[in-house]
Amino acid sequence: LYIYATFSKRMKTFTLKLLLIGLLGIINGTSTSAQNYTRQRDWVIAPMYSVGAVIPPSVTLISGTEASKPAWGVSSYQGELVKSDGTVYTRKYRTSLWGFETYYRWKARRSENRWSIGLSAAWQRQVFKLEHPFSFAYKGHDLVSTVWNFNYLRTGLLIRHTWMKDWSGIYAQLGGYYSTLFYMNTANGRDKIEEREGGYLEGGTGYRSRTYNLQKAVPLVVPEIGMLIGENSGIEFSLSYYHPLSNLVQSENTFYRNNQAVGVSRVDISQSVIMLNFKLPIAFV
User: Fold this and answer.
1) C-beta neighbour count of 269 within 10 angstroms
2) pTM of the predicted model as reported, rounded to 2 decimal places
3) Checking CA distances to 148, which of 38, 155, 195, 199 falls within 20 to 30 Å?
């Protein structure tokens, strides 16, 4: 009886030790898994600068045979411009923006991939050029093209998913932005974009223009793809496409030769642009 009781007591002790070892193993495994796949959450502020190229506006010939042509591949302009009074001034325009993104970011469960949702705000500048169908003289200057530039504030929401691999990754982002406060840089400083009439006509040759259907605000859908270097903070490079849901303004141009209207065209001026973005995300874990 004594031998059986002693054996039974030892079996219970051995069984208890096994249970404790198993429980410690489960706790240790859970701890290791939690260390490898933490539900890390952080807040990110990312200053950004971008340069781009405007997608040329569409030109529709309403009547006649002469119409301006949009120039492709124009992302900046530096040179002389002529005012309607014949005064010449020099300007440098570049399609670019500067601003910031700020967003809340979290890791997916049992993964290093991340989701983000946040806000974006930036001042944006765009420039494009329309080539005239023929050159003409105006107050001693040969005019061959019209240069447009406009500036605006854009703000909105963004959502992003990032696929991480060690300390780098790639991401896809979708933004819904709202643009407003449109103005132009001219010889007189900053002028609001307004519906107006004007042009360059001398000796019965040249053109007259009229702008209309000006929008006070334009919504934008902006898909973006990019890559990042750095597990938390670091640097990012991306490419984005700005797709406006409406035109900013329309312009009707009438070209004259020897006091005869030889062509009337409509130009749909939009904010379609491709931007190359550089960002410096700073994470607060």
Assistant:
1) 23
2) 0.82
3) 155
What is d(CA 198, CA 156) in angstroms, rounded to the nearest whole number? Answer: 35
Q: What is the mean pLDDT of the chain?
A: 86
The DSSP bridge pattern shows strands 217-229 and 205-212 to be: unpaired
Taking residues 183-191, what's their average pLDDT? 80
Rounded CA separation 22/146 (Å): 80
Q: Quick one: which of 201, 87, 67 has its CA closest to 138?
A: 201
- pLDDT bin (cut points 50, 70, 90) of residue 193 is confident
CA dist 236 → 93, 157, 226, 228 (Å): 25, 19, 7, 4
Residues 6 or more apart whose Cβ sits within 8 Å of residue 107: 37, 38, 39, 40, 41, 113, 114
Residue 23 has pLDDT above 50, yes or no: no
Both structure tokens of 69: 């042509």
CA distance 276 to 241: 9
Using an 8 Å Cβ cutoff, are 215 and 208 in contact? no
Q: Are 269 and 249 in contact (CB under 8 A)?
A: yes
